[in-house]
Write a structure and sequence with these properties.
- The chain folds into 2 domains: about 1-50 and about 250-325 and about 445-500, 3-Layer(bba) Sandwich (FAD/NAD(P)-binding domain), CATH 3.50.50.60; about 95-170 and about 180-245 and about 330-440, Guanine Nucleotide Dissociation Inhibitor, domain 2 (2-Layer Sandwich).
- Helices cover about 25% and strands about 25% of the residues.
- The protein contains 13 helices and 20 strands.
- The strands form 3 sheets. Strands 4, 6, 7, 8, 9, 14, 15, 16, 17 and 18 form a 10-stranded mixed β-sheet that branches. Strands 1, 2, 10, 11, 12, 13, 19 and 20 form an 8-stranded mixed β-sheet that branches.
- The longest helix is centred in the C-terminal third of the chain and has 16 residues, at about 410-425.
- One of its GO terms (cellular component) is nucleus.
Length: about 500
């Protein structure tokens, strides 16, 4: 540990959530001296994939008030109903705190390819979209072909849906398109007024947009962009699907692989160490240390355990930086309730082959239509991850549930919806473990701030089912600040193949 204090670090990165990990990846071939620390003893930060024992420690951390993003976490373990319903060992599970899918038509996947880490990731198909309504499960048509072949749809609804799909698939540069309603109407109003769609079709279209808000509060232009991306992604990588996740934990696996690339590039990694304090060292520069002629004032950092280090630039998130002013607070956030449920049944009926010659998906998306007036209540989303994701043992699956509702009663509503859904699937009483928690959903846009000279903090990310492109914009902004005159847009996350990678191919 003494040698850490002997170095002058060009960059110290605190935390291994997706933004920090992608930043480490972007700097992995810069030749800079980088120290990457995390207060946890695992990778992933707010995007971590946890074992059962990790979850227990994480809940304790929240109880101690050391996390401003997550709160109110509780674990419940119902009595097993049968021998096949028993929990496996702790390390048999990789439970994602922030389960997100990645659309084929996104900037994320090309960045993972151009940065050369895609060869270390195994991507799995996200398959069918479903709606759970009044105790029955209906598959949502995701393409025009699906609409045409869906015998359950009345002809009037088919015509209305086809008109809507033609509208959203028009090229953005098509000046003949009538976009007058896009920015002024809600999804609910636009579907009823412009497209004359029945109320029963609002929830399925909302599911394709993955909007966490009720249809009455979802802006139509926002929904339009997201549904268009869904439609254009379908079939991009193969028949019948348009999104993927990384095997073994999704975001947490991407984070770990990105950090591994940083280590290969020479970065030093230190888990289980917190950045406790930051002080700009007056009058102390790299030039004073005989390192070089750089006149940049150094930042003195103290890690947990008392180790003192010096850096030119420090980057992290609110919870990873001491005394950060942009921590999520009750005044600028709304809560999303989430739960993670281990189910002692594989629920294989949810994962039909995407199409003839298509893959068997590993993830299904379900919108649970809540009671009350159509479009007025926040939808409940379920992500069902099969045993093929590597997140649970064979014969089980994981259900990730979420609802954007700050009311404390939403926690129970969420669990009731999961139980009713599992019963509809013919697997009553098969939930053998659950974690429920609230997420402070920031109302800020993606971004970052400079807390003090050369100390950058990534803003809290909005809760979303998608790993979306704005995270790359934030990372690129910090990368350009670090690189200075050496920053070129076409070099961000674009690397040549290493000789070792070529040899492996």
């Amino acid at each position: 540990m003494e040698t850490l204090g002997d170095e002058i670090w060009d960059v110290v990165i605190a935390g291994t959530s997706i933004p920090q990990s992608l930043l480490a990846l972007s700097l992995s071939r810069s030749g800079k001296k980088i120290l990457h620390v995390d207060r946890h003893d695992y990778y992933g930060g707010d995007d971590a994939g946890l074992s059962l024992q990790d979850v227990e420690r994480w809940v304790q951390e929240l109880d101690n008030g050391r996390n401003s993003l997550f709160k109110c976490a509780t674990v419940s373990t119902p009595a097993p109903q049968s021998d096949h319903g028993k929990l496996a060992s702790s390390r048999s599970y990789t439970l994602s705190l922030n389960p997100q899918i990645v659309y084929a038509q996104s900037a994320i996947l090309p960045a993972l390819v151009s940065s050369r880490i895609h060869t270390q990731l195994e991507f799995l198909a996200v398959g069918s979209w479903w709606i759970h309504r009044a105790g029955t499960l209906h598959k949502i048509p995701s393409t025009r072909e699906d609409v045409f072949n869906d015998e359950s749809l009345p002809m009037k609804d088919k015509r209305g849906l086809m008109k809507f799909l033609r509208y959203i698939l028009q090229e953005e540069e098509d000046q003949t398109a009538d976009t007058s309603v896009d920015s002024h109407f809600t999804l609910q109003t636009a579907l009823a007024a412009k497209f004359k769609l029945s109320e029963s079709l609002q929830a399925p279209l909302q599911a394709l947009a993955l909007s966490p808000l009720p249809a009455s509060l979802t802006r139509f232009d926002t929904a339009l962009i997201r549904i268009r991306r869904h439609m254009r992604s379908m079939g991009y990588f193969g028949p019948g699907f348009g999104a993927v996740i990384a095997k073994y934990g999704g975001n947490s696996e991407i984070s770990q692989v990105a950090c591994r690339a940083g280590a290969v590039g020479g970065s030093v990694y230190l888990l289980g160490h917190e950045l406790r304090s930051l002080t700009t060292a007056k009058g102390i520069t790299a030039a004073n240390t005989n390192e070089n002629a750089d006149q940049t004032p150094l930042i003195e950092c103290v890690l947990s355990g008392g180790t003192q280090i010096r850096a030119k630039i420090v980057v992290g998130s609110a919870d990873d930086l001491p005394q950060a002013e942009d921590k999520v607070s009750a005044g600028d956030c709304a809560s999303t309730w989430r739960s993670i449920n281990i189910v002692a049944d594989p629920l294989r009926q949810l994962f039909p082959q995407t199409a003839e010659n298509g893959p068997t998906p590993a993830v299904a998306i379900v919108l649970v239509e809540a009671g009350g007036p159509t479009g007025q209540r926040a939808p409940i989303y379920l992500q069902i991850h099969s045993e093929d994701t590597g997140e649970c043992p064979s014969g089980q699956c994981i259900i990730y549930a979420s609802v954007a509702d700050p009311d404390s009663s939403a926690r129970q509503s969420l669990q009731t919806s999961v139980s009713e859904f599992v019963a509809t699937c013919g697997a009553s009483d098969s939930i053998i473990w659950s974690l429920s928690y609230a997420v402070s959903d920031s109302q800020q846009d993606h971004g970052y701030s400079e807390l003090s000279p050369r100390v950058f903090s990534f803003a809290p990310r909005p809760c979303d089912t998608l790993l979306d492109d704005p995270v790359l914009v934030s990372v690129k902004g910090v990368w350009k600040s670090i690189q200075g005159a050496d920053a070129q847009d076409d070099l961000f996350l674009r690397f040549e193949e290493r000789e070792s990678e070529a040899d492996n191919d």
